[in-house]
Write a structure and sequence with these properties.
This is SGNH/GDSL hydrolase family protein. Keywords: Hydrolase. Pfam families: Lipase_GDSL_2. By secondary structure, this protein is an alpha+beta fold. It has 2 domains: 168 residues; 187 residues, SGNH hydrolase (Rossmann fold), CATH 3.40.50. Helix content is 18%, strand content 33%. It contains 8 helices and 24 strands. The strands form 6 sheets. Strands 3, 5, 8, 9, 12, 14 and 15 form a 7-stranded antiparallel β-sheet that branches. Strands 1, 4, 10, 11 and 17 form a 5-stranded antiparallel β-sheet that branches. A hairpin with a 2-residue loop joins β23 and β24. α5 packs parallel to α6. The longest helix has 17 residues. The chain starts with a strand and ends in a 17-residue tail after the last helix.
């Protein structure tokens, strides 16, 4: 079962012979933690000399005694050629739900082009938690050398808003637990929410036995590639390869409209994506495109296309369920615009209140696979 995941993007380079400490948070618990690494966009093999998993304390420091080494086919070292992934051996012991974890990767030698998730945010417990965990950055970079086993944070001198080479965390979870992936763009990433919690984070914090994994790429499109693959390709290449996914929520297409895409092309892509998901036994939930009048790339043609696409999502036959994000955010007095309270200020990205409304728009029962398939880690 996938308890955490991140979309892959092509980012900068320049990292060599150092350790990166990625701080993430599980959604559901289980046992036998496994870490999947990716070099999807790398231009050379990357060697990880050591990989450790621990529990953050404050900043880059870890709880004493929590940091444990992961192995890959019994070896503490693993090399990923360009375009490949590697899954660690299970780490014995329980994994708590909604627990912050620090995954430390020692990069031996030159790393080349980094595969990671840009605009990463520091994970925290739900706001309702009686004992919030200390904050910090989503990732830290060390001075040169292997500091993966360090429980002190002293060697980690730089903060980074990037998750490095992490593709997914998986656990063995009870059979009653399923996972939903959100395939989207900057709205999925959480851009606009001044609290740092986007609607996907809020969805994961409802307390249900459901893993919610975020496959958002800021600036991502359905039809064409950006820093990551086009969403249509990411569905098959990334999302559906992760264990336990029973449903996918799709909220993507505004960036395509901003680039001049036609409604018919997006609708055809949605049909293909739904067919791909169904062939894998996965349900596809269509999310209506949110209002964006006033945004820099809004045009009358784009608005007409958005309305046509939303009519298809609501009334067409491609999707198994509907999440009406448009209805959740629009201004009743001017439906092409975001409700002012839901507008972060750029007329495209929702505010914190808007992200809360997006999460509330997902009122579906727990997703069940269309067909029984084996996706255990």
């Amino acid at each position: 079962m996938t308890t955490w995941a991140a979309a892959a993007e092509r980012l900068g380079g320049g990292l060599r012979d150092l350790t990166v400490r990625n701080v993430v948070r599980t959604t559901v618990g289980g046992s036998g933690l496994r870490v999947r690494l990716t070099n999807a966009f790398g231009n050379r093999p990357v060697t990880f000399g050591h990989v450790y998993a621990g529990v953050p304390r404050a900043g880059a420091a870890l709880e004493p005694g929590s940091n444990r080494m992961l192995t890959f086919a019994g070896s503490p070292e693993v090399t990923l050629p360009p375009g490949t992934t590697a899954l660690s051996d299970p780490l014995p012991g329980p994994v708590l739900p909604r627990r912050r974890l620090a995954i430390s990767l020692y990069v031996r030698g030159e790393a080349g082009t980094l595969t990671g998730r840009n605009r990463a945010t520091a994970p925290a417990r739900p706001p309702s938690s009686a004992a919030p965990e200390p904050g910090g950055a989503p990732a830290y970079r060390s001075v040169p050398g292997d500091h993966a086993s360090d429980e002190s944070g002293a060697a980690y001198i730089d903060e980074a808003a990037v998750w490095h080479w992490l593709d997914a965390l998986t656990v063995t979870a009870p059979a009653s637990v399923s996972a939903v992936a959100v395939l989207g763009d900057s709205l999925a990433v959480g851009v606009g929410s001044e609290t740092g919690l986007g609607w996907v984070d809020l969805l994961a914090d409802r307390g249900w036995p459901l893993a919610v994994v975020n496959e958002g790429v800021s600036g991502g499109k359905v039809l064409t590639a950006g820093t990551g693959l086009a969403a249509e390709k990411r569905l098959a290449a990334e999302v559906l390869t992760k264990p336990g996914i029973a449903a996918v929520i799709l909220l993507a297409g505004l960036n395509d409209l901003g680039a001049g895409a036609r409604a018919g092309d997006l609708i055809a892509a949605y049909r293909r994506m739904a067919a791909t998901a169904h062939a894998a036994g996965v349900r596809m939930i269509g999310g209506t495109l949110t209002p964006y009048a006033g945004a820099e790339y809004h045009t009358p043609e784009g608005e007409r296309a958005r309305q046509e696409i939303n009519a298809f999502i609501r009334h067409g036959d491609a999707f198994d369920d509907l999440a009406d994000f448009d209805a959740a955010l629009r201004d009743p007095a001017a439906p092409a615009r975001l409700l002012p309270h839901h507008d972060s200020g750029d007329h495209l990205h929702p505010s914190a209140a808007g992200h809360q409304a997006l999460a509330a728009a997902v009122t579906l029962p727990l997703p069940q696979p269309i067909a029984t398939t084996s996706r255990s880690p």
